[in-house]
Design a protein that fits this description.
alpha+beta; tRNA 2-thiouridine synthesizing protein A; about 80 residues; Translation Initiation Factor IF3
């Protein structure tokens, strides 16, 4: 199964939020989910590009996808898929 075939159990829209809010929201979503569940995060804060991978590494979750996209206005946003370990 590819990453594109995964259906997230939880989707978080953290666009417009600044550090540490996106990671705090991810932590809360992970806490409420079951092992193996996938959380999808959309963010605009550049700090998520290092905060979310470190969060996953330190807490034993798998970062399935990390990508930079352009929104409809041509602004950079970040997209993540995290599987609870």
């Amino acid at each position: 199964m590819s990453v594109q075939d995964l259906t997230p159990h939880i989707q978080l829209n953290t666009r417009g939020l600044r550090c540490p809010e996106p990671v705090m929201m991810l932590h809360q979503a992970i806490r409420k989910s079951k092992t193996g569940d996938v959380v999808e995060v959309f963010a605009t804060d550049n700090s998520t590009s290092w905060d979310i991978p470190k969060f996953c590494m330190h807490l034993g979750h798998e970062l399935l996808l990390q990508e930079e996209l352009l929104d409809a206005n041509g602004l950079k946003e970040f997209h993540y898929l995290i599987q609870k370990g």
